[in-house]
Amino acid sequence: MPDTHIAVTAVSDEGDTVIVWGRPVDAFDEVEPVGFAFHAKGEDADAALAARASRLARGDEVVIEYVPVATGWNIARGMSHP
Q1: 65-77 core/surface letters (b: 16 or more CB in 10 A; e: else)
Q2: Which of 8, 26, 30, 40 is 20 to 30 A from 58 via CA?
Q3: pLDDT at residue 28 greater than cutoff 90
Q4: pLDDT exceeds 90 at position 44
């Protein structure tokens, strides 16, 4: 499972899903942010992980383990602080 070290640009809590947007920490500001979905309900959901993601703020740095879904979108499977 790949992972990436990002700087958070935005967080959106949609209830059952938390979306964290971010750029690789070494990327220029012109690079488009990538979205990581943290599911609180449903198959392969992790409510505790989604709750931790919902508390992130712009500028936080995290390492996210993910599964790619589509260009610019990923399903998060783990998260840690560098």
Answers
A1: bbeeeeeeebbbb
A2: 40
A3: no
A4: no
74: its two tokens: 């990923």
Q: How far apart are CA 6 and CA 40, in angstroms?
A: 21
Residue 82 has pLDDT above 90, yes or no: no
Residue 76 above 90 pLDDT?
Answer: yes
Q: Structure tokens of 79?
A: 């998260």
Owner of token pair 């992972």 = 3
Its pTM stands at 0.92
Of the candidates 51, 76, 47, 75, which has an alpha carbon nearest to the alpha carbon of residue 64?
A: 76
C-alpha 41/C-alpha 57 separation (Å) is 22
